Please model this.
Amino acid sequence: MIRTSTLLAALAIATASPALAQQAPAVDPAKVDAAVKAAFPGAPADWAPRLTPDETMKACSAHNNLPPAPVAQAITAREKATIEYPADGNFIGDWKRGEQYAQSGFGLRFTDYPPRNRVNGGNCYACHQLTKVEVSYGTIGPSLLKYGEIRKFAEADAKLVYEKIYNASASFPCSLMPRLGANKVLTIDQIKDIVALVMSPDSPVNK
Ligand code: HEC
Model:
């Protein structure tokens, strides 16, 4: 049996730790930058932008991904401004191609260099459940099973999914989901194909 005093001691530690974390000395961001760059000595030249945090990443790091309201608003405004929309105003492409992109992590991995004659993937399954048939998926993001059906396949929601994939931080500051359109990982047409996977009644996500 656990003694009350042990429990109380554990509770005291648990409540004290956030305060302790706040007292930790701030790390010089220049030192962090230098350490990150030094960790990729053989990085190809076109990786340089990926090793340099942009304004949003800097703000997220400075606030441990929990920015105060004014900073959060500045992030979502800045990220929203990056979103480019399909010229034809249609957000739904081909879900079969979308499924292939959702399953593919090709593109930005060490082993994907030098670039080969293959399109990038969105790696959606690494973080989300999308279909019942896919055996393996990650759980960093919420399950997207029946996502379109739950939303009655509404066009307004297809637009939101497009925006989420294009730039997740436009609606969720410091999201752990990559900014796949803004960072040129996926093209507008690829994003439309993935929106079709998430939102079409005939896609395996909603069957
Ligand atoms: C590295 C992990 C990661 C990857 C890869 C990823 N996501 Fe996400 N996704 C998340 C997280 C975390 C959230 C919740 C926070 C947010 O909304 O930004 C999320 C949220 C979402 C949402 C909104 C869910 C809701 O509650 O309405 C959609 C839709 C979505 N992701 C679709 C996708 C698709 C499609 C792909 C592939 C192109 C993808 N995600 C790739 C982590 C990821």
Q: What stands out?
A: The first helix runs from residue 4 to 23. The chain has eight helices and no strands. The CA atoms of residues 103 and 123 lie 6 Å apart.
